[in-house]
Each structure stands twice: as C-alpha cells, then as structure tokens.
Amino acid sequence: MIHEVFMPALSSTMTEGKIVSWVKSPGDRVEKGETVVVVESDKADMDVESFYEGYLAVITVPAGESAPVGAAIALLAESEAEIEQVKQQAAQSSQGTAVSTPQKDSVPTPTPGQVEAAPVAAQDTPSPRNGRIVASPRARKLAKELRVDLNSLKGSGPYGRVIAEDVEAAAGKGSTPAATPAATTTAPKPTSTPAPTTPAPRPAPTPAVPVAALGETVPFNTLQNAVVRNMVASLQVPTFHVGYTITTDELDKLYKKIKTKGVTMTALLAKAVAVTLQKHPLVNASCVEQGIQYHSSINIAVAVAMPGGGLITPVLQQADQVDIYSLSRNWKDLVERARLKQLQPEEYSSGTFTLSNLGMFGVDRFDAILPPGQGSILAIGASRPSVVATEEGMMGVRRQMQVNITCDHRIIYGADAAAFLQDLAKLIETDPQSLTL
C-alpha cells in the first residue's frame, strides 16, 4: 500500500510551505511519530512527523521547493520490497496516469491509506525539551559512518542545523564520541586515534542575509510573502491615528535601577501598555463578523525584524498578569527563538494588541499599519531631551517620546484612543514604579 505524505497546514493563514530539509532519504525506514521533513511555514520552521510506519520511497518535492497545503510531497511504501513498485507508480503519476495531486487550496480528507502529518516546533540546536537536533540527511549518514555523536555538535548550517561539514570537522579533530546504537554494527573502526584536542569555540550561527546585485529582482521569501498578505488585508480596514507626547523621566530612572536585573525597556513598555489596557478593554478588542470580540486576556505582540527580511510579532501572553522580571526573561527567550524560526504558532499569532518600537533607530514618530485581527497597534518613537514649560511657568528640560496609535474605526473611536493614551501617559509619567509590583 502507498501512503502519501501531504504538506500540512501549520497555521491558519498558511497556503503553501517550503521544504527546508528532508530528515529522511529515499529508502530510509520511517517509524510512526518520527520526523520525516522540516517545513518552513509563514513564520517558523516545523518538524513534520509521520503517523504511519514504512519506507520513504519517493520524494516528490525536494528541499528548497514549495508546495501548496494539501499537496503530496512524498510517498511511503509499507515494505522495503514495495519501494521499486512505488517509484514506478510515481513515475506514471507524473505523466498523469496515476493518482492525481490535490488541488492547491484544497485540504484532502485523510483516508486509511494516507499519512497525516503532525507538526512540532523544529529544534535546530540540542534542546533539553526533546533531546533532538536537526541535521541534514547526509550529516546523519556521515555521523553513523564516522561514529560521531550528533548531540555533541553545534551546527553551522541555516538556523543551526548540523551539516556534513560539521560531522567531518568533528571527526577530523580526533574526538571519539560515543557511537549511536545504529552505528555500532555498520561503522568502520578507525585505524588510529589522534590525541584529543580542545576544539576552538564556534561562533553562534546566524541566518545568511542574501545580498542582491544592483538591478536584480529577488523573489519574496516565505516570511515576506506572509507580511505582504497581511498588509494587503489590512487595507480593507478603516483606520485612524492619534498621537501623544509622553514624558519619560521617571520611567528612565526606573529602568536604570532595574536593568541590571535583566529588565528590558521593551518589557517595561509592554507591561505599561498591558496594565493600561485593563481599564480600556475596547482598545484590546477586535472586530469580527458577529460584532466586537472582547478578549479574555491581554497578549502584547511586539514587532521584531527578521534576518533576511520580513518581521514577526512574538507575543507576551497575559502581560498584565506577569511580573516585570519574568516578562523580560520571556521576551529574551521569544526573540532568540523567533530569529531561529523556532516559535510555535500560538507564540506569534495570539496577540490582542501590538507594539512597534523604532525608537532605537532615533525615529521621532511614525504610523504603524494595523495587523489583521487586532483593533489597535501602538507606534513608539525615541525618547529625547526637550525644552518644555514647567507647571511653575519656568523653562526646563524633560525627556519625551512620541507615541502614535492606529485603531480600527469600526469598533474604536477617537475618544477611546485618546483616553487610553492619556492613562498610559499618566502611568509612565507619575507611577512607573507600580510596574515592578
């Protein structure tokens, strides 16, 4: 029997996925629940696991290519003896004489002979969460032959994947890691073992940023395509903008006191916004077909630029309920995993209110585009010394920042946005210490 591996829908907005790498090669045994392929969705790399066991016979969508959700990307044979038969049927299918490929936007209904795919977050470096690493098929094969333990390596491939060169380098350095069970029966014994040496520390891998030549047209990557779809969808929503000037002297003093404890300014601003939203549930709401959806939690999404283009919005869940120190730790973890494309969908798609901060670039103020499914987004500019008139009628210098909120005018009105900004300013200017409680 032939089992088809389909491109899974890894998020509600995903229409197609790109094959990052095949963990299994044609002819390899596939166990139930074992990772077969790594797929790039809109904003994350996900492992795709098989719900059936068998042998990977044919890969119909190679690494680097994309396929629509629901399309067959590989074929499994139940036994090793059936592999050749599956290959022949796949060749006939390519000529239109065998099983047809599902239509682009249709999600097939699984039958007993089909393989359902279960996505889980891809871990590109050794992780205590699942004890697995992601390596290229050639690297896995070399590791078995050279008796190199993949868990002892730090990958230099895209997003930290272990590649063949990493395995060869580890074997050439003379380290003798323990062999995996599968390698004990097939790996050749080395004739000599050089004296152990201390390997030089390898710098943390960073995703390569493509450099385009002048005059060249570069296609959108998967993340950029997702941003394009979201921005076009946002044009259908009537929005308006309201600006406000906030004095940040007291907030800056607080930040200087607690930044040594790992607190970030992003976490402070997110906490301040979340606490203010408790008084303004309408600004945290969103417009749906049935009316106004008031969310049960305040989840602050913060825009982060991604290497190679595009952006992602990691979400600080229930930011109003979490203490500032835990919130800062959560934020650092989210940013790190976001740039490695290891976030779970709920970690970047569950925001109820978004922050976009360009203050670190010296931007005074800007308008942010409303994300689909949300009612508001706050654009934050740089905090700068400004000459102002004090309450005593004198001139003084105060640090001030410009903020500008974009709202869905179908459910939020100017007075609602203004009242929210007024309360946010009052909290930051007069009582920022309450953010640490």
Q: What is the ordering of alpha helices and beta strands?
A: EEEEEEEEHEEHHHEHHEEEEEEHHEEEH
Kindly report the average pLDDT value: 79
Rg calc = 26 Å
Identify the CATH class of the largest domain: Alpha Beta
- In this structure, how is the largest beta sheet organized? 6 strands, mixed
What does this structure look like?
GO terms for molecular function: dihydrolipoyllysine-residue acetyltransferase activity. The protein is of the alpha+beta class and 437 residues long. It has helices at residues 83-94, 137-146, 164-172, 222-234, 249-258, 265-277, 324-339, 346-349, 414-430, and strands at residues 2-6, 16-22, 29-30, 35-40, 45-50, 54-59, 66-68, 72-77, 114-115, 117-121, 239-247, 286-288, 291-293, 300-302, 304-305, 311-312, 315-316, 353-357, 376-389, 395-408. It has 3 domains: 2-122, RNA polymerase II/Efflux pump adaptor protein, barrel-sandwich hybrid domain (OB fold (Dihydrolipoamide Acetyltransferase, E2P), Beta Barrel); 135-194; 223-436, Chloramphenicol Acetyltransferase (2-Layer Sandwich), CATH 3.30.559.10. The chain has 9 helices and 20 strands. It is elongated and about 90 Å long.
